[in-house]
Structure to design on (387 residues):
């Protein structure tokens, strides 16, 4: 959405398309053909690669267990945000759920931070936020901007220069699923709204995708056979097309800090149900912020521990496009009864759909091949880091 903030004539709007993804539209009456939107767009223009990280990765978590309980991983985001607001009088920018969509919002009080906590599994609407951050930076305020790697890079491209009082924190990003998934998941289970995408009711990493509101109750769909969202996400079927050729899911990060789940600990004795984060300090400013933030407990770990079971730190996984359904969702739901389309999407990951057994086996074989390719790229990344 960088183009919308870049256009000086307000000619670019966004709407959610039939596949459930935000897509741009240009108003031909307003557009003067200056091509500023294209020159800024990091999907179109050539991007310089950032250097390989020089700093050691860290494992860490917020010292306050309440923060960890309400965060998706170790609560690093909230601990940093509190430090920026309290000790630096700064503003914090992150994603919130607003009705049926996710939006980026800027806040400057501790009371407003709760809404920013937690992963929201859909693309957030960032319209207006890059301009707003620029105005804050020009006024000399400290800004902590958190978002997907492409959004953090978009902010830097929009600004066109560096600011010492700006810190960007990107999340390790699997890809953003279609809004259609959330919509169908709610319709299937009679829910009115999504309360949280990943709850820790069974402990970190024992995923409860997703908690929905049904009247007065908050419900998690425990039977995975009915959990359309879970299947489509885990099977990597329904991400935005740009996420299958992502230029930003790479070990060479342009943000100051990267935070994600420390999945290497998930099945080991170090497992902690409150959640543990992996932290990559990509720049000296990022490293300094972690050191100064007294709400975070952190320890250095090896690169192998940081990267194990978390391929999106170093791999763009373009090959997975071969199994994606994301560009056909609109067609599926237009021409098939919604129940049949849901059934197809759930089929291959759930293993319970015997009718699709052969299809499921075939897709699993492809997936296995793709996963093997990924482990090859883990070794390659580790070698380049050792050098
Ligand atoms: C779509 C998506 C895919 C992810 N995939 C992986 C993965 O493959 N591996 C992994 O280790 N971690 C992944 N994560 C990140 C992880 O789940 C945590 O969000 C991250 O580790 C931060 O955790 P936390 O406890 O510090 O803070 P939290 O409080 O859990 O997260 C806070 C911040 O995350 C950002 N955020 C949340 N949702 C969005 C969104 N839709 N768009 C932009 N920013 C958002 C916000 O700015 C928010 O304020 C993903 C997150 C998302 C949203
Ligand atoms: S070409 Fe210029 S006027 Fe037209 S949409 Fe792009 S930025 Fe706006
Ligand atoms: S996978 Fe890449 S393109 Fe997709 S949201 Fe994440 S950073 Fe952006």
């Amino acid at each position: 959405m960088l183009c919308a903030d870049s256009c000086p004539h307000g000619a670019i709007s966004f709407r959610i398309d039939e596949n459930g993804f935000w897509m741009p539209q240009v108003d031909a009456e307003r557009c003067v053909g200056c091509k500023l939107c294209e020159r800024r767009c990091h999907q179109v223009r050539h991007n310089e690669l950032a250097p390989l990280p020089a700093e050691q990765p860290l494992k860490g978590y917020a010292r306050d267990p309440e923060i960890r309980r309400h965060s998706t991983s170790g609560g690093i985001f909230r601990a940093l945000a509190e430090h920026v607001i309290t000790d630096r009088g700064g503003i914090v920018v992150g994603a919130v759920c607003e009705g049926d969509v996710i939006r980026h919002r800027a806040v400057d009080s501790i009371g407003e931070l709760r809404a920013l906590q937690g992963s929201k599994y859909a693309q957030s609407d960032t319209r207006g936020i890059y301009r707003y951050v620029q105005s804050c930076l020009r006024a000399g305020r400290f800004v902590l901007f958190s978002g997907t790697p492409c959004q953090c890079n978009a902010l830097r491209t929009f600004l066109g220069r560096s600011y010492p009082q700006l810190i960007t924190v990107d999340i390790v990003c699997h890809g953003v699923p279609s809004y259609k998934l959330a919509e169908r998941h709610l319709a299937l289970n009679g829910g009115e709204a999504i309360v949280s995408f990943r709850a820790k009711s069974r402990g970190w990493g024992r995923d409860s995708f997703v908690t929905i509101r049904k009247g007065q109750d908050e419900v998690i769909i425990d039977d995975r056979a009915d959990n359309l969202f879970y299947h489509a996400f885990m099977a990597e079927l329904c991400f935005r097309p740009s996420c299958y050729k992502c230029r930003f899911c790479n070990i060479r990060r342009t943000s100051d800090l990267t935070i994600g789940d420390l999945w290497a600990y998930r099945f080991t004795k170090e497992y902690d149900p409150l959640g543990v984060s992996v932290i990559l300090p990509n720049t000296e400013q990022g490293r300094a912020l972690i050191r100064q933030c007294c709400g975070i407990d952190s320890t250095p770990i090896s690169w192998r521990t940081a990267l194990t079971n978390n391929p999106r730190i170093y791999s763009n996984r373009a090959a997975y496009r071969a199994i994606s359904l994301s560009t056909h969702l609109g067609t599926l739901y237009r021409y098939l009864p919604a129940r049949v389309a849901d059934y197809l999407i759930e089929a291959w990951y759930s293993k319970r759909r015997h009718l699709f057994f052969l299809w499921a086996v075939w897709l699993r074989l492809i997936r296995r091949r793709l996963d093997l390719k990924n482990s090859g790229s883990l070794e390659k990344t580790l070698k380049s880091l050792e050098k």
About this structure: The chain is about 35% helix and 20% strand.
